[in-house]
Design a protein that fits this description.
alpha+beta, single chain
Length: 151
């Protein structure tokens, strides 16, 4: 049942109680909440939400479809806000085919008319090469070979 499905953002709440409410129209209360909901939107391929929460001054006309990317883990490294400005630094682990990588970004957000919007970010992508006996990149605590490395 969708109500019980874990939220892709990694929060301990179910999807509908976490990012699902923002995807349904409730404004995100902070830059971190917006960033988590945008990560979940990437994982669930909710392009309309991504464009709607992107500030008009930097929003692209469309997003390229990317069904080959599987987002597996989000780590918020730092976040904060001051007035109508906000920032979030995060690391998102993903898989493309059999290749693993991590996107680390320092993102900027702005609040207008009571809504937070993604403004821009400085992304950096690094390829990951997890070994069979390394901890899994998804954060499960299991060995890579018996978790995501076996899929």
């Amino acid at each position: 049942m969708a109500k019980q499905r874990p939220c892709p953002c990694g929060d301990s709440q179910a999807y509908l109680a976490c990012c699902g409410r923002y995807h349904a129209g409730t404004p995100a209360p902070s830059p971190e909440a917006l960033m988590r909901s945008r990560y979940s939107a990437f994982a669930l391929q909710l392009d309309d939400y991504l464009l709607a929460t992107w500030h008009a001054s930097t929003r692209p006309a469309s997003l390229p479809g990317d069904e080959s990317t599987r987002w597996v883990r989000l780590e918020v490294l730092e976040s904060g806000e001051s007035g109508a400005q906000g920032h979030v630094r995060f690391r998102a682990t993903f898989r493309e085919g059999r290749r693993w990588a991590a996107l680390e970004e320092a993102s900027r957000f702005v609040r207008e008319a009571g809504h937070w919007y993604y403004l821009d970010g400085r992304p950096r992508v690094a390829r990951l090469k997890p070994g069979r006996n390394d901890p899994c990149v998804c954060g499960s605590g299991r060995k890579f070979k018996v978790c995501c490395g076996g899929t």
